[in-house]
Specification:
By secondary structure, the protein is mainly alpha-helical. It has two domains: 80 residues, no CATH class; 76 residues, Arc Repressor Mutant, subunit A. It is 46% helix and 5% strand. A hairpin with a 5-residue loop joins strand 1 and strand 2.
Length: 168
């Protein structure tokens, strides 16, 4: 999802994966949209009116489950946003690449290929494209990413170290 302001600045507030629900949170029809959704890969989507969605929840006795789901997803979003603000650019770029790879289907042989351009990474992280290009060069130099025009994870352990993620 990409959130934006009236000046056109955009930032990635969260990533979602297969099976996650993504929706608009505007309470009234005249409210401003909270974010745009952009798929990185093939996906299936459905568009429901609020009335249809409410009816679905009621018919499946799922109101409580849906509220629990929303609370869990919102509590993931705040730490994600904090890390994006407080971490240095290298860690932010490495974390977004690592998280994107980790959310991909583990059986997908192409999951190490990251479907972001440098421009898309810069937009998502609120960084200058030149800053992202410098960080990608550094991640390639240390062996975390492979060489070439595409972003391909060469070594996820090195990438996790560069992202400052604790692994077991």
């Amino acid at each position: 999802m990409l959130a934006g302001d009236i000046e056109g600045s955009r930032l990635l507030p969260s990533l979602r994966a297969a099976g996650d629900l993504v929706g608009e949170m505007a309470a009234r029809p005249d409210s401003h949209r909270s974010a745009n959704v952009q798929a990185l890969d093939h996906c299936m989507s459905r568009c429901l009116t609020r009335a249809d969605f409410d009816r679905f929840l009621r018919d499946h006795n799922a109101d409580g489950l849906f509220r629990d789901y929303l609370v869990a997803k919102l509590s993931e979003t705040v730490p994600y946003q904090l890390q994006q603000v407080h971490l240095p650019p290298r860690h932010r770029v490495a974390r977004l690449i690592l998280e994107t790879m980790s959310l991909a289907d583990p059986d997908d042989g192409n999951r190490v290929t990251i479907p972001f351009s440098q421009e898309a990474l810069a937009t998502a992280l609120g960084l200058a494209r030149s800053t992202v290009a410098d960080q990608i060069s550094a991640l390639r130099a240390c062996g975390a990413l492979g060489q070439g025009p595409r972003l391909v994870v060469a070594n996820d352990r090195i990438l996790a170290t560069e992202a400052r993620v604790v692994t077991r």
